[in-house]
Each structure stands twice: as structure tokens, then as C-alpha cells.
Amino acid sequence: MSFAHDLATGALRLIDPETAHEAALTGLRLGLGPRVRADKFPRLKTTLAGLDLPNPVGMAAGFDKNCEAPDALFAAGFGFVECGTVTPRPQAGNPRPRIFRLSEDRSVINRLGFNNKGLDYFADRLSARAGRPGALGANVGANKDSEDRAADYVLGMGRVWKCASYVTANISSPNTPGLRGLQERGALENLLGRLREARAPLEAAHGRRPLFLKVAPDLDETAVRDIAELALAYGLDALIVSNTTLQRPAHLTSDRRDEAGGLSGQALFQISTHTLRLFAQALGGRLPLIGVGGVASGLTALAKIKAGASAVQLYSAMAYEGPGLVARVLDELDGLLAADGFDSAAEAVGADLR
After folding, report:
1. Is 52 helix (H, G, I), strand (E, B) or coil?
2. What is the domain-level CATH number for residue 344?
3. How confident is the model at residue 286 (pLDDT cuts 50, 70, 90)?
4. Model pTM greater than 0.90?
């Protein structure tokens, strides 16, 4: 079966990246994806912000924007799945082409612009699978033409709260003009204050859910300290570090390296892991971190964990490796933890900082 998946992945690489992505999502929805037990390795069982996970390897937001194939992703072995980013109103996003493979660099540039079918569709999909197993997160954002972006996040959180395992506020996409400005101290205090206020009645009605914030990798040490401080002050449950980068490392060789948009994949690994480490140092274990950016193997997953991540997410590597990648990452990660003498993934969190 793995050979068939690898063959299909190879074929998809020959067509336009966005069409390939849509085809992969359709295939998963039809049940054509791999079947892997997420709890195969007891050593990988972990807890993240109160969520019990069979393993610490999650699917990052962006792959399944409309919550159309979460169960297939769980079946592929992911320990948790994050769908979205979803905006209150449906949004077409930027003109195509807007995804570019940097094959020589095992990386991707995208300038999608929060294309999605909107909150009504997303919430219907989410509630349709209520009661099924799996930690399923909902990643919410703001419409491009919104006059009050903080209100969009409050609305999104309110609509998904009942049926999501956790909610992520994504303030770090580089493809919605001005969105990253929400990371600045004053704007972030306003946003987090309004989310905290809206959260209390939701918790009273439907119970507690962890609330995460997804940040950019392109932050200086002052911004990292400010965000860490506010995340603690406003009761967030974890930070996701990080989204795509606007940087273009000098080592990129692909002809597509100068396309506008956010860079992800292998070229993001060092940049995002550096920012992750800064957050881990600023927080000193007071808040869990989720490491994203360039995770493509057990080795890169473990590097994120040792830099301070309690869990990791991947996405871009699947464009090159296909959905069978998850099983390989889990197998490698378990072996590496054992070789390093760790009895659990949690024991390795922040090992490089100790």
C-alpha cells in the first residue's frame, strides 16, 4: 500500500501544486489514504495543554482549510489535526497561481490569502463529526476586508468552540495585508482581551477548550518577549511557532525563490526553530509550545522537541513525501527517543536548553 501511495504522490508532483493539493484532499476524503495506528508507539503518547494525544505529531493548518478530511488524517497516523484557517465569510483568496514548489530546496512558497468556504460551512463540517475520537483543532482568522479584525476572531472562536478540541487564533499569515500587525503589543493586548472576555461564557456553556495563538517566525527578541508575556497574562494555553517566513535564505537555489508569499518546508526549519528556542527561553516552561516549520523526519521532529516544543506539526513535507510520511516520522522519532534514553516524548522537551 505504501508503494501505491508513493506512486500517487510522485504523479501529483507532476501537476500544478494547488490542483495536486485538491486531488490529494479528494483522495483522502474517498478513503484512499494510508491507515496507520496513531498509538502504535507507547513512548510517543503525550499531553498538550490538557489534551491527551497518542503521539506529538500533528497536521498543521492550511492543508484542510474547510474541515473536509480530518478523519482520514487521523487514520494516516496524526496525533492531532488542525483544520482552517477559516474566516467568517467565504473568501476566494489571491489569484492563481499562488503555490510554488521549490523542489531543489524541498520547500514551498504560497500566497493563498486565506481562501476558504467560510465559517458556516466549516462549522457544519465540524459539528457533523462531533463525538468521534481525535484531537481536532480549529484555526480561525480574519477576512481581508474586515473593518474589525479582532471581532472576526471572536466570532470564529464562538462558532467552533462547541465542537473543536482546541481553537487557534492565526495572526501570522503573511498573505493578508496588515494581519501580522496584530502581533504588535497594543493590537495583541486588544485582541487577547476581547478573546478572553468572549471565552468565559463559551466555557460556561460548553466547557473548557485550550486556546492557542499562531505566530510568525520573523520576530525579534523584543517581540518574542512581549508576545510571551501577553500570552501568559491573558491565559492562552499554548503558542504555535511558527507560520511561514518572508525571509529568503541565501542558500535557496530554485528558480521560484523570489515569488511573493510565505516560505515553508525545509528552508523554514532553521529560522522557525531559532524562534521556537527564543520563545522556550522566554517562557521557561510556563506555557507549552508547538513547533512547526520544516518538520519532515523523526530527526527534525526531535530537534523541535529538544528546542522546547511539546508537540510538532507538519504540512509542506507532505507535498514531497505524501501522507505515508507520518508513519515514517513516528517510527523514526520513537527510535531516536529510545536511542537517546528517553522513556517518553515529554522527557525530551527542551533537552537542548537544560
Report:
1. strand
2. 3.20.20.70
3. very high
4. yes
Domain of 154, in residue numbers:
2-353
Chain centre distance of CA 248 = 21
Q: Give the pairing of strands 262-265 and 46-48.
A: unpaired
- Per-residue pLDDT at 13: 72
User: How many other β-carbons are positioned within 10 Å of the β-carbon of residue 23?
Assistant: 15
Q: Which DSSP string do the residues of 283-334 spell out, in sequence order?
A: HTTSS-EEEESS--SHHHHHHHHHTT-SEEEE-HHHHHH-TTHHHHHHHHHH
Catalytic positions, written as ranges: 173
Helix (H, G, I), strand (E, B) or coil at 220: coil
* Domain count of the fold of the chain: 1
Using pLDDT thresholds of 50, 70 and 90, give the confidence band for residue 255. very high
User: What are 315-326's pLDDT values in tens digits?
Assistant: 999 999 989 999
Looking at residue 158, what DSSP letter applies?
Answer: H
pLDDT of residue 14: 72
Beta-bridge partners for 76: none
Sign, CA torsion 208/53/219/307:
positive
3-state helix, strand and coil shares in percent for the chain, rounded to the nearest 5: 45, 15, 40
Cβ(211)–Cβ(236) below 8 Å: yes
Rounded Cα distance between 63 and 81, Å, is 10
d(CA 309, CA 80): 15
Counted residue by residue, the chain has a size of 354
> 22-57: per-residue pLDDT in tens?
999 999 999 999 999 999 999 999 999 999 999 999
C-beta atoms surrounding 191 within 10 Å: 23
Contact status, residue 285 vs residue 256, Cβ threshold 8 Å: no
